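job 3f2a | input accepted
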Amino acid sequence: MADILPECLVQKILSFLPSYNQASKMSILSKTWLQAWSTLPNLKFFLFCWEGWESRTKIVDTIMERYGKGKIPIEKFELSEIFVDSLQLFPMVDKWLLIALQNSVKELVLHFKSYPAPILTILAAKSLRELVLHDCTLMPVSLSCGVVNSNSLRKLSLSNVTLDENMLQTLLNSCPLIVSFIVENCSGLNVLKIKADSLKVLKIIQYCNICNIDAPNLVSLDYKGYEIPELNIARESKIILHCLLSLNTAWFYLQMDHIGSSGGVDVLNLNMLLMDEIIECPTFVDALLWSCHPERLNLISIDIETVTRLIDRLMYMKNSSHSTYCHGWNNQLKEIKAFDGKNQLLQLGSEELAKRITEGEKPYFILDW
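job 3f2a | predicted structure (369 res):
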């Protein structure tokens, strides 16, 4: 009965198992399952720090050598370690990584503490479409413009990676067709400047002194940091800002001509979970809305008073006949409407709306400027 399923379907089933070792246990079912397991295109290995890790490493090495000699295609290669000292494994990782790249790997995930990832070799792989690096280091590597050009890479994710500003930008320059980029808690980045015309999706969780984003074709930005970035992005971009501690209201005024003159953004997601003190200042709300000029405003908060103050401010802005923040162009709020999660029109009573928002419902506002 186990041989009824075709090999391709068996491989699909095995790919949903958490690790390669667990998939190997299914190989005893039949010859079809054994063959499917021995040629799995997705390889996921974990190396743990406990007794017997040497033998586990030898097993991984044997498997990778078999894939290398048989030139078995690899779609995804994921390698993670939890070692106190993994330095001695770096040569083995280099070997396994080279086999994966030679076997046309499309998605590469490395979670290896302090591993000096051979980024030049990785980017030279013509098949690679997604690269995810955790805890690695790129500092010893020197990239120069024109040395490497990865036209295949579309997604890049760096988490807890050690690199500097020059390395980051040169890395982006080397991937001219990248559409998705994630940078999270990377050490060595005091100034974060991102320039990439091809970027569509950008996620940043980075607490640096200066952040500048120049991505004219961006459609989604999710940012968390101490300073709000200077933006040059597309009008239709969806922006989520989680700004902590040193949020500066003046930033919005500096950005008004930069963002507002291009018409603002279609959707603004405002997370107010850590913004109680900021919302006390009406000029913050004014500056936020004037600068971004959103057509739709989504709110996230658990504090009724905070949401009530913001809604009251919106109503005040609508009812005011003049604005002190015009800067020479028509940005007055003409109309405001509130809708629930089912797109049903809601009354604009601030207390009722605030209650619905803080209770987890998802009302939103449509703003007509």
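job 3f2a | Residues 1-40 form one domain.
job 3f2a | closed
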